[in-house]
Each structure stands twice: as C-alpha cells, then as structure tokens.
Amino acid sequence: MLLQEERMNKRIYLQSENNIPYIDLYLHERAKKESIVLVIPGGGYFFCNPREGEDIAYNFLSRGFDAAVLQYSTNKGDLYPKQLIETAKAIDYIKKTLGYEKVFLCGFSAGGHLAASVATLFNKEERIKEYDCRPNGCVLSYPVLISRRFENKITLDNLCGNDEALRSWVSLEDRVDSQTPKFFIWHTFEDEKVPVENSLIFASALRKNNIAFELHIYEKGPHALSLATDITAEREEDVNNHASSWFDLACDWIKNCL
C-alpha cells in the first residue's frame, strides 16, 4: 500500500467546475512527465464502473507509472461522439497542459471500446481532429469492439441508440489503418457478456494492417474481472489468480513501448 506522502491526487475538470468530464490524477511526487496511463472504466456507457478506476490507477502507481482516471458522460441520451470527444480532450490536456510526452490508455469493457475508438478514429472523426489525442498504445481489458453477430447489445444501444449506420461506424475492426497505435489485449474464453470474438476479430484486423499487438486469452473467468484479485473483487468468481497475471504483463508491455 502506498503512503499518502508517496503520491499526489488532483481532480481536473475538462469542461466546467464540478461537472463531467474530469480526470483524477495519481502522480508520483517527482513525476518526470515522460509517460502516463489514462484509465478508462467500463460500465456499458451507462455508468463508470468504480472497480475499474482508482484501484487500477493505484496499481499502476505502485509499478512506477503516473496514472489518471477518466470520468466520462454516461447519462441516458449521451450518444456518440460525446464520450469520444471527452476522451480526446483528456488526452490533449494531458499532453499539452500537463506536459506528458507519451499517453497510454487502459480501457475496460465499454471503456475498452472508448480507448480503441480514440486509437482508430483520431484521424477519421472530424470532431476530434483538433485535439492531439493519438495514444502511444492501448491496453484493452475484455473490450467491446465490434457490432453485429458478436456485439454487446446494451453497450452499443447506449452509445448509438437506434442508428444502424452509427453502429456500423463504431465496429472498430473496420476502422484500423496503418496509423493505428499498438495494442495489448486480454479477454477470457468464458466471458458471456462480451464474447471473446470481440478481441479475436479486432486482433485479426490489427494483423492485416501490420499493427503490433499482444493478445492473451484466459480460459476461465467471467466478464469484468478488473484486476482479478481481492482488491477489486465483488464476488468469489472475481478472483482469478491465473487471469490476474494480465496486469504485470501489461506493465511489462508498456515499459517495452517506452
């Protein structure tokens, strides 16, 4: 456990005071500002899962990384591209105002979709082109990534409403191109809420475009494992000692990207 004096916390509102979106910072006292991990919680685009926020940031902090957690809009009717713009603003702020050279994203479930959206749409979506928002790499945890056959319907309903064309646009395997950054992706075969095909199909698209990635598929475990340890567990099945290895692997992967 980190002592209070070993880190500094600060909330940054990106739009207006006491309002979403905002980022919470978890920084080392003598931060070098070379790199930071922006954590993006999941929650189906209808809430930001607290199990995928602060505890993740503290774990990155304990591994020597500065970290931040994004709280983005999840009210009913907050459709695309609102959350995408908020994420782009957060990355731009971290780079230009805080002065970090490299920004890595760590997204969970719907937050994985949001992270991958920025990573694949930064050069396609006109409404975020004004922001310096291309991440240096993305860690995706059991991410929602595709529509149609293997989609997580509630997530895409909350993001797209009844707009079928938009649903197709945010099926991100079709948005990968030669400028897409590299990815670390993990999923479980047993995930019943977000089928593992989301990660497999997206990884195949990365391969087709010659984008480097690391992919880990664990056999056991339900959706939303978070750290897969006692720290973030709500139920007994949320503890999975084997799948919990994802975090150390992801940290090593980020270090290799620096």
Automatic annotation (TrEMBL):
Keyword Transport found: no
Name of the protein this chain belongs to: Alpha/beta hydrolase
UniProt keyword annotation of Hydrolase present: yes
Alphabetical list of Pfam families matching this protein: BD-FAE
One MF term in the entry's GO annotations: hydrolase activity
Residues of the BD-FAE-like domain: 23-206
Keywords (A to Z) from UniProt: Hydrolase
InterPro entries tied to this protein: AB_hydrolase_fold (IPR029058), BD-FAE-like_dom (IPR049492), GDXG_lipolytic_enzyme (IPR050300)
